[in-house]
Write a structure and sequence with these properties.
heterodimer; A: about 120 residues; mainly beta; 7-stranded mixed beta sheet; 11 strands; globular; B: about 120 residues; 4-stranded antiparallel beta sheet
Chain lengths: ~120, ~120
């Protein structure tokens, strides 16, 4: 009964391909996030969704498109993959409203994307 | 401008000793929160401890405590009685409200802690 689960855990693909990463949380949280961790371990927010509505959209190439079919799922689709997209992508979730401001974001185990 | 600064890229500590990992932050928002996460070599992100800007006392969670000095804008993590399993990357992060029911975490660059037997 993993709280935040991402699939796949590893993704190895060729430059130019399109790929998707799926994320699901069973915590009942209303907000979900995508973070990118680069080769130097630096973590940066990419997107956040609150109840299926896009809230944060950082300066990310439009080849990256998040989709949230419901508040328990947030998927990330990447078109025309480039070498620089190689990274670990983390999904996270949190409960934000109703006095939950001290609650942490819960992270999935990450998806390691390698572009050949 | 960097909002979260972790000045120690790497640190070593002897097993059973205490260690302090530094974190300074910069914000003009009076309401903010600071989090520490641990990332072992297996890659997952593990939440350790939280400190809110209005909290009167320093946060503690088991062997973890936070030395919060608001005027200095520092939130250092103290790990007591280090164990070999504490070897990992440690990230300090600040919560910033993004509005509309969401906040984002801004992370520092991390400190790699190695515990020596």
């Amino acid at each position: 009964d993993t709280a935040v689960s991402q699939t796949p855990k590893y993704l190895v693909t060729q430059m130019g391909n399109d790929k998707s990463i799926k994320c699901e949380q069973n915590l009942g949280h209303d907000t979900m996030y995508w973070y990118k961790q680069d080769s130097k371990k630096f973590l940066k927010i990419m997107f956040s969704y609150n109840n299926k509505e896009l809230i944060i959209n950082e300066t990310v190439p439009n080849r990256f498109s998040p989709k949230s079919p419901d508040k328990a799922h947030l998927n990330l689709h990447i078109n025309s993959l480039e070498l620089g997209d190689s990274a670990v992508y983390f999904c996270a979730s949190s409960q934000v409203g109703g006095g939950y401001s001290n609650q942490p974001q819960h992270f999935g185990d990450g998806t390691r994307l390698s572009i050949l | 401008a960097q909002k979260i600064t972790q000045t120690q890229p790497g640190m070593f500590v002897q097993e059973k000793e205490a260690v302090t990992l530094d974190c300074t932050y910069d914000t003009s928002d009076p309401s903010y929160g600071l989090f520490w996460y641990k990332q072992p070599s297996s890659g997952e992100m593990i939440f350790l401890i939280y400190q809110g800007s209005y909290d009167q006392q320093n946060a503690t969670e088991g062997r973890y405590s936070l030395n919060f000095q608001k005027a200095r804008k520092s939130a250092n993590l103290v790990i007591s009685a280090s164990q070999l399993g504490d070897s990992a990357m440690y990230f300090c992060a600040m919560r910033e409200w993004s509005g509309a029911g969401s906040y984002q975490l801004t992370f520092g660059k991390g400190t790699k802690l190695s515990v020596i037997p």
